[in-house]
Specification:
This protein is mainly alpha-helical and 71 residues long. It has one helix spanning 20-32; strands at 2-3, 11-12. Binds the cellulose synthase activator, bis-(3'-5') cyclic diguanylic acid (c-di-GMP).
Length: 71
Amino acid sequence: MINHPQNPYVKLLVVFGRDDKDLLQAAKGIAQGNILFRGESVVVNEVKPLLPRKPYDAPKLGAYRSSGHLW
């Protein structure tokens, strides 16, 4: 994480890799949220593959047929 060179209110997350494979692995690790960001740098050694979700499986959403209002 570095400061934006032109805007002091913005931070930039810089991701490095030796090749495309390393960058993809880092992106997957960050997207899964299993990486603890501490210190000057973080190394993503391995990423567990995600299993496919079951159809209509949305664990973080409530039942869409409930009698609630959106507004």
